[in-house]
Amino acid sequence: MTATTRTRRLAKHAALVAFGLLLLYPLIWMLSSSFKPTELIFSDSSLWPREFTLSNYTDGWNALRIPFSTFFWNSFVVAIGSIVGNLVACSLAAYAFARLNFTLRRMWFAIMLATIMLPQHVVLIPQYILFSELNWIDTFLPLVVPKFLATDAFFIFLMVQFIRTLPRELDDAAKIDGCGWWGIYWRVIMPLTMPALATTAIFTFIWTWNDFLSPLIYLSTPENYTVPLALRAFMDAEGESSWGPLFAMSILSLGPIFGFFLAAQKYLVRGVATTGLK
Amino acid sequence: MSAVATRGRVDSPPERPRRTGGRRFRISENVAGYLFLSPWLVGLFVIVIGPMIASLYLSFTEYNPLTTPTWIGLDNYVRLFSDDPRYIASLKVTLVYVVVSVPLQLAFALFLAMVLDKGLRGLSFYRSVYYLPSLLGSSVAIAILWRRVFSGDGLVNSFLGVFGVEGRSWISEPATAVYTLVALSVWTFGAPMVIFLAGLRQIPDMYYEAAAVDGAGRVRRFFAITVPLLTPVIFFNLILQMIGAFQAFTPAFVVSDGTGGPVDSTLFYTLYLYQEGFASFRMGYASAMAWVLFVVIALFTALNFAGSKYWVFYGDER
């Protein structure tokens, strides 16, 4: 390798690193600010806090009448429920679409694809009326139950695409060995669909963890707030006065997503590349 | 495990009659298909199609949760377009947001996908880092951060101050507020970038080699090979991001405290819909808004599909 290609390569790396830092700068700044005393956040512009404090975290955790542990717990319950719902319901439908021959299959499949495009807002109000008739307002049920009915059709599509790549000979072999439809689904297809299931679980987690609109509509008492609602209530209550604790709680709220990102990059990137999930 | 064990003896004669004459009840494929589909079918009718019909009906009524709906014909729709300046404002803000943010975001995504495609070690690391904002972008925490970044004494202005440029309070000025949200959308270019990268990998190297032999420079190769062969992916991203942009909600809500201010300059369509439906409880009116949004998105998508035959090139075309 000649010296010039090497310098060019180095220059490219330098540019990419610089751009990455620019991109993540707001996040890094928020992280560093969360360790500064509030009065220093806007006067001390260095990224490394001159005065290091954890009080933002302890103050923020108990800033509302209810500690943030409650909100984190609520968010986790909703997220886990949604993950289970999506995995079960979407995989059942995906298996049917990808492997079984039934009347009107093409029509149902087209309808399924169409629902992916449907703006959530068209059904928002009647859904609210429906759930309030069922007395489900201010519970987690409106957030979780639809997942058990496979309303996140995106994931059906993702799994159908994946199952179609599996050789049909496996199904035939299982049939010869005495497996019924359920056996093929449960013993053959599901174990092999693990990568798509992982992608589904991760994206369901991230979407429900970030979701703001549905909790905003359905959850009213602070005891039931999820983390995004709590952050918003925090901002409303304390306003511009306590950026330190607000940043600290914001950082904590991003923690689980960041953790998933680190642990499962390859599933994330593959999922995006095959279906265009965000 | 038992499956593997029996497979070994698959052609041993005594097995066969037992299996074909098995007493085990087998349901037909048709019934099985519908059984597997049943959760989704229930959801489709109860959570999607039923509510769609209901919201279409409600859009012709005056309705709040305490009363029964009264039929008022097209009044809601007429009022939207003739007697509601806030609605027109929200429509304009949303269109500006869609028309500005989607092309900008896609341009960024395509440019960086080209940069990160190949030729350097460690590119997958950069891909991951650049992708990260896409996962965080719709969260309340980032919207809170954005308020700080673009406020009068925020990060952007201290950065501009280094160059001696006097900044302003981007968030609280009506002229610039929506562009802070555009910036947030551009910041999340990582998701379309990853889709572009997958598309770039489908383009065979030999095309580039042949063009290079013919003396085509970098720019020429980009416009003569990459862009035409990537048009299906560009189209896919365009549709996806456009539909998403029409429905943006959280950042506008958090940045403006749910008001859509200053002076309705961040009053996104969905935000106004939320205010009407769930703050003022004019649910008939909000349903009419929802249906107009649906039609607008469908129209934009249809227009894109109609236009696509002039610029989208599928490899199998003759």
Helices of chain A, by number, come to 14
Annotated CATH architecture of chain B: Orthogonal Bundle
Shape of chain B: globular
Shape of chain A: flat
Number of strands of chain B: 2
Provide the structure class of chain A. mainly alpha
Characterize the biggest β-sheet of chain A.
none
Oligomer category: heterodimer
Q: Kindly provide the radius of gyration of chain A, computed on alpha-carbon positions and rounded to a whole number of angstroms.
A: 24 Å
* Distance between the first and last residues' Cα of chain B: 51 Å
Which range does the strand content of chain A fall in?
Answer: under 5%
* Beta content of chain B: under 5%
Unreliable stretches of chain B (pLDDT < 50, length at least 5) are 1-24
Give the overall average pLDDT of chain A.
89
How is the CATH topology of chain B named? MetI-like fold
Write structural notes for this entry.
The complex is a heterodimer of chains A (278) and B (318). Chain A has 278 residues and is mainly α. Chain A has helices spanning 3-33, 55-61, 68-99, 105-117, 121-133, 141-148, 153-164, 168-176, 181-192, 194-210, 213-218, 227-238, 243-263, 265-275. Chain A has a single domain (69-275), classed as MetI-like (MetI-like fold), CATH 1.10.3720.10. Chain A has 14 helices and no strands. In chain A, helix 3 packs across helix 7 and helix 12 (227-238) runs antiparallel to helix 13 (243-263). Chain B has 318 residues and is mostly helical. Chain B is globular and about 75 Å long. In chain B, 38% of the residues are buried. Chain A: Belongs to the binding-protein-dependent transport system permease family. Chain A: This is Carbohydrate ABC transporter permease. Chain A: Residues 72-264 form the ABC transmembrane type-1 domain.
Concise structural overview:
The complex is a heterodimer of chains A (278) and B (318). By secondary structure, chain A is mainly α. Chain A has 14 helices and no strands.
